[in-house]
Amino acid sequence: MPHVVEAKKQPGTGHFSDPPLFVLASLANGPKHGHAMIEDIAHLCGTRLGPGTLYGAIARLEQQGWIEPLPPEERRRPYRITGKGLRALRAKLTTLQLFAKAGLRRLEA
């Protein structure tokens, strides 16, 4: 699977970081444990979350009912996105898409 966002950083372009959104997007194509999410998120958008950031986002998402833990596999705890989480992810991505389109139109004007 190709990178969605080029991993190479361009000077002065800033940095977008929304760890809960990254976790939801990672889990949208199937359950994963923490390390697999870190690698998937890095591949997906070029951002590597640290364990503290990842597990903080996981805790918040679990409290909201947007993800849920699955039974442990050896020493790893996989998580999956819930129906509520899928709806939240779709709503957030739709909002970001509309925002991006509006911003790009302004740049073209």
What does this structure look like?
- The chain is mainly α and 109 residues long.
- The chain has a single domain, classed as Winged helix-like DNA-binding domain superfamily/Winged helix DNA-binding domain (Arc Repressor Mutant, subunit A), CATH 1.10.10.
- It has a two-stranded antiparallel ribbon with strand order 1-2.
- Helix 1 crosses helix 3.
- The longest helix has 26 residues.
- It is elongated, with a radius of gyration of 15 Å.
- 19% of the residues are buried.
- The N terminus is likely disordered.
Layout of secondary structure:
Blueprint: H1 19-27, H2 34-45, H3 51-64, E1 67-69, E2 79-81, H4 83-108
Antiparallel strand pairs: 1-2
Helix pairs in contact: 1-2, 1-3
What's this, in brief?
The chain is built from 4 helices and 2 strands; from the N terminus they run H-H-H-E-E-H.
Order of secondary-structure elements? HHHEEH
How would a textbook summarize the main sheet? 2 strands, antiparallel
Which CATH top level class fits? Mainly Alpha
Mean pLDDT, rounded to whole units? 88
Q: What is the CATH architecture assignment?
A: Orthogonal Bundle
Termini separation comes to: 34 Å
- What's the β-strand tally? 2
Gyration radius, rounded: 15 Å
CATH fold label: Arc Repressor Mutant, subunit A
Which residue ranges are poorly predicted, with pLDDT under 50 across at least 5 consecutive positions? Answer: 1-14
Main attributes of the structure:
109 residues, 6% strand, disordered N terminus, two-stranded antiparallel sheet, single chain, Arc Repressor Mutant, subunit A, mainly alpha, 4 helices
